Amino acid sequence: MLDQPQEMAGAQDTIYLCNFRVSVDGEWLCLKQLEDVEFVDTNYQQPISPPSPIEPLALLAAKDPVLIEKSNLVNISKLVVKELIETSEKYGRMLDSDHLPLQHFFIVLEHVLRHGLKPKKGILGPKKELWDILQLVEKYSNEARDITASVRDLPTVNTHMGRARAWLRLALMQKKLADYLKVLIDRKDSVLADYFEPEALMMSDEAFIIQGLLVGLNVIDCNLCVKEEDLDCQQGVIDFSLYLRNSHHYYHSSESVLDPENMTRVLDQKNYIEELNRHLNATVANLEAKVESLQTTNALMKEDLDISRNNILLLTEENSDLKRQIAGKADLEKSPDKPDGDKSTEVKKIVETTTEVEELRKQLDLEKRKRLEAEKELKLQVSMKSEMEVAMKLLEKDIREKENTILSLSRQLDEIKLINLELFKKLKIRFKVKRLKKLFKIKQECEEDLTQKGELVSRLQRKTTQIGKILSNMEKYNNLLSPTSRASISSEGGATPSRPTSWGVVGQSSLDVFDKKSPNYYKKVYPLTNVDLSKVKKSPKTPEDADTGGPPPSKVEKVSEEDPTVPTSQTDQ
Asked: Which of 40, 177, 266, 376 has the greatest number of CB atoms lying within 10 Å of its CB?
C-alpha cells in the first residue's frame, strides 16, 4: 500500500515539472501552463513527507527566470527523448522525417542549443549564429568534417539556421550527436564563452544532462532526407499534452512489468543504461588520462624545481668562494710580511686566470652566436620546407582540379558530339520524311490529274459516239430525202433550219458536212484527233455503258415517221 502513494507522488512531481505547453514564437520558447487535473484524486490523501531537496531549488527558480528557462528546457528534453525512444519500438528502431516525436526533438534541441546566445554587438557587428558554433566541431573531431562539408554543399539550404538544422540531422544519423556535443562542452571556457552568455544552458552543468539524454538516441536508426525538407523556414508548434501520462499508468502492479509486452521496453531501458554507462566510462577514462598527464607534468615540474634549487645553491657557494678568494688576495696585497716573489707569482696566477676566463667567455660568446645562427638557419629551413610543402599541396590540388576540369570538358565534348550526331540523324530523317511527303503529294496530284483527264476523255468519247450516231441518223435521213428536196437544198445553198450554219463555212454545201469524203467531215465529227488515248488513264465504265456499249438511247436523234423533213433531237437535261 505504501508503493501506490509513492508512485502517485512521483507522478505529481513529474506533472508539476512538465505541466505546460510549448510553442515557438520567433526566437523564443513560449511556455503555457495547462489545467490538467488528471492526477487529482479526491479520495487520496497525500502523506506528510519531509521537505524535498527540490523545493529550495523551485523557490530559487521562481525568483530567477533564467533558471526557470533552463529547468523547463531540461524537463522538456527528458520528456521528448523518452517519448522518442518509446515510440521507436513500434517501427523497429527505424524512423524517418515524418515521425512527429522526432520533429519535436529537433525543435527542442534547437532551442536548447540557442539558449543564451550572445546578441549582435552594434549595428555593424557580426551576429552570433548556431551554425558558427557547430562548424567549430570539425577542428577537434575528424569525423565531423564530412557532414560539415556536405552541409556547406547543400543546394536547397540558404540560411545559417537551415544549415545548423541539417547538421544536427546528419549528426543524429551518424550517431555521433552526443560525442560532438561533448566536444563543445569540454571546451566551453575556450570556445563557447565567445558565443554564449555565462548563464546559458550550454555553459552550465545542465549541459551534461542534455549530453546524457542524447547518448540514449544511439539505439535509434534515423533515415532523413535533408534535401527534400524545407529547413530554412520556421519550425512548428509542439503540443505537450501528447507526452502526459494517464493516472492509471502509475497504478500498474509490478507484475505487469514482467509481461511479454513490456519486455521490449525493459530491454530498451537496459540498452539505454548500458550505453549511458559506456559513455560515462569513456568520460571517466578520459578524465583519468588527464589526471595522469597532469600528475606527470607536476612531477616533472617538481624535478625541475629541485634541479634549479640545487643549481642556485651551487652558484651561491661558488659566489661565496670567489668572494673569499678576492678578500684573501686583498689581504695578501695589504700584508707587508710576504716577500715580493710570492706576490709576483700570485699576481701572475691571477692574471693568467683572468685571461683564461676572458678567453673562455669569448669562446662561449662565439659558440652562442654560432648556435643562434644555426637556430635561425634551422628555423628558416623549416619555414621554407613548410612553405614548399604548402606550395606542393596547392600545386597538387591545382593539378587535380585541372585534371578534373579536363575530364569534365572531355566528357562534355563527347556528349556534345553524341548530341550533334543525334541531331544530324534527326535532321536527315526529317529531310527524308519531307521529301517523301512532297513526292507522295506530287504522286497524289498526278493521280488526281490522270483521273480527271481520264474522266474528260471518257466524256469526249461518249460525245464522239453520240455525234457518230447523230451523223448516222442524218445519213439515214439524207437517204430518205427525195431528189427534188435535194435539189432545192442545193439551190438554196444555205443552212436548213434543222442544221446549224456553224457546221460549215459560208458558201459551202451542207452536204459536204455529211459526206465522209469531204475534209470537213472529220474536223467536225472528230475534233480531238491529236489526243493520244493510250497515255490517258481510262475511267471505269458505268453499268449502262458495259451493257449497251454506248450512251443511252435517249441521246440519239430520232426521225419522225409522220414528217420525215423535221428531225427531232432528244438530249439530257
From this structure: 177
